[in-house]
Amino acid sequence: MPYAVLRSPRSSRFVGRRDELGALCAALAAAPSVAFVEGEAGIGKTRLIHEALARTATPGRRVLAGNCLPLREPFPYGPVVDLFRGLGDDLPRRLNPVCGALRSHVPELAAALPPAPEPAADHRATQHRLFRAVRALLEALGDTVVVVEDLHWADDGTRDLLRFLVDAPPPRLALVLSHRREDLPDGGLPLGRAHRCPPGTTEIRVPLHPLDAAAVSDLTAAMTGGRPVSTELAAELHRRTAGIPFVLEETVRVLTEGPRRRKWLDVEDVATMRVPALLLEATADRMAQLSPAAADAVRAAAVLRVPAEEELIADVMQDGGPQHAAPPAATARPAARRAAAAVREALLSGMLHEEEDGRYGFRHTLAQQAVYSMLPGPDRHALHQRALAALARQDPPPLVRLAYHARLSGDWAGWQHHCEQAVEAAHEMGDTALVVELLEELLCDGRLPARERGRLAARLSREAAVGLAHRRATALLRRVLRDAGLPEGLRGEIRLNLGLLLNNQAGRYQEGRADTATAVTELRDRPALAARGMAALAMPSWGDQPLQVHERWIARAEELVATQTDGALRIAVRGNHLALLMSTGSPHVWRAADELLTQGQSVAERREVARACGNLADAATCLGHYEAARRYRLEGRRLAAECGAPYLETIVEGTALRLAWHTGRWDGLAERARQALGLVGGVSGIAADAHLVLGLLASARGEWEEAASRLRDAGLADPANAPANILAAASAAMARLHMACGDQEAGCAEALRATERVRVKGIWTWAADLAPMTVSALVRRGRHAEAAELTAEFGERLAGRDAPLAAAAHLACRGVVATGERRHAEAAAVFDAARAAYAALPQPYSAARTGEAAARNRLALGEPPDATGLARAAEEFGALGAIRDAARCRRALRQNGTAVPSRRGRRGYGAELSPREEEVARLVALGRTNREIAEVLFLSPRTVEQHVARVLRKLNVTSRDQVAVLRPAGQDPTAAGHGAAPG
Questions:
Q1: What fold, for 18-207?
Q2: Containing H/E element for 146?
């Protein structure tokens, strides 16, 4: 790209903007063309243009760039004239004589330009001659891209000249113009007046919007050396920066550079960070351009913190509005008009933004903080007092906002009063998250008396146990427990709920179990609460204790609850007991479980039924009773929503993700799982479900690194603090991944470790995914006797259990053992039975895998190729989107002389991509090499090379990178699976 004078983009990696980049690339390749790139300050206009130019660069194409500058009196035609300064001796030798008009504007080119024409009669003729000269020179240069950035700062002459070019562009010119719509004069028209491109000219507008949370995560990872970015951190960064790349980049730099630099970022770092210096400077510069009244309006909005109505902003402004209940009309009207004018100016400047409901606030949190941080202390104090007085006049009073302003205006008594009132109001509305947040704020105040601290801590512990947020609450409760003067019964209650919080929300099982067990001892004089603690310790997914330990805890809880009349307590203990029994596959639990769903009259009782439904749905999913699991999930979600228990409402959604995976409802599942991670605020159990499903999907697409990362996040990175049932499934998937990558030793070791954990726990229904994988790993390592022993042990442990998924898995284990011992006829029959058992659940992916295994055993018998079995498996894999498995089946058919038609049939595709080419294009879009694509699709590298060439030709692109641009957003490649055996 010779002669480009573009500003350097701030980040090294381009993220998001796939559709916008594709549109701009297409325009650059379709000269003559005009592209308007619009977006607010810092949105990434320059970065997009850089990326498009890099991806469409061709030999001989020139790129000329000019920038409009924010000068009080811009130089006439400055940005356009600057385009030509670097051309030097590279000008064509024979130029249109009119180009001589450029001599006085670009003296650097005087020697290469024709003689200057005679002076024109008037300035209009001179201007027209200059415009013609620019057009003639661009036409002589041939294939050229002209970029003019920040058109909103252009002088009138520059805009007239650009409009002249747009109205009649040279045939080989691609013109790219960037601007901020909010800063454009003349009614928001980029070129000052309306224009119309002539026929045959491509014209596009590319509006840039903020990055979404996924792109924020990608950009943050790129800026921190590829370190993983948690979903919660990405969500917080997105909230504080509104997804504006410049603001995000400065935020990450503050966190990773200088004295406060962090190797690993977390949400707390973001919450406590200072405003980036460049953002402060930019904010101060924009504030300086406002009138005093408009600046006061912006400061008032910063103090109010949340978007507010114009009248409220006027009341808080230093001199914006009346400060008494009934101002005289003559005084109020001029003040209101001044305030309205001030707010309007702030809006037009971009300092404030209008919300949909007629309120005004800041584009993002850091903008508000930047303005707020510039306020001197006395001014802040006075503005908070004005806000407090103005809000106190509203009916009903906004209690949370009153508490906030009372605190920051120095009114501590008012702060505590309003805060406790807000707690009660939020509790009445069922807003658990707000209750927890307010109680946390109260407990953080060092002026709170000890007696009040204990009372509020107990309240916080109860509310937090059914909410989602947990980090701050756990730290505060732990601090309260250090008070030696705390009564033992109160201490036990706080510790019990802390233990529940650590187990359920935080996923710190070892610490949580220890606290819960200690609380049971401290609650010796409060048997109802002690029974709750015992019932919690009976939940088998908590930790690695054997089943017998959980059974003893639930027996003690049932003994205690028999003496109590508390209905909610009875339901809580009974629900946990039934979930424990269901987890083991007890055939006698179903009627009692259904009866439990009919109980519960009070809010507290219905909340416990909701909790029980969540646990029963989880247990039924592990058993393979998918219809029952759906029923429990729906009822639990309904009850939790009615009772205002967000934690209980979300745990059933984690189960729903696993249900969708098992039953083959994979369309949109990855997006659902990512959304769940963004919504649950780091709640461990739901996060484990989501990570597991994302890991399984990535593994099914052949994305080994992504799969391994997700499976570690699902629990493998910290087995002692992972849900035991999820851990077993994650280990099975990780073992399969190792085997698929050729590391049979690592795969076998992972499977055996996980199997030993199940053996210690004693709940073999959780080995439905794991047992076939472990048996397969042993067979592949030649350890046939151990494989047979494990299969027999698995069958014995399932005897008398109502566990259809584990029963199907046991059949698969038997098939693997028979295959390893070359008893192919028996293996085929057993795999057929396993396929039927999986299909009945339904669990289509496992059914297809065992169906393929049956067909391969028939091939091993030397019989005619089982085209029906392999073709059916290929069809089933394809329907799921597991194209790697489907390709493996098709290869087996080809090797045995049988062709399998595409699901879309055979025909000529012309300029369209064939199904195979679509698969290749999707993998190319993910950045896969030809060799990697060959491994996924079971093709030769040479065949893949031919497919890639056809993809590039049909998409009319010249590089693999452009395939990623043109691939429709949201289409992931559907590569998958590994290995013919069900393990």
A1: Rossmann fold (3.40.50)
A2: strand 144-149
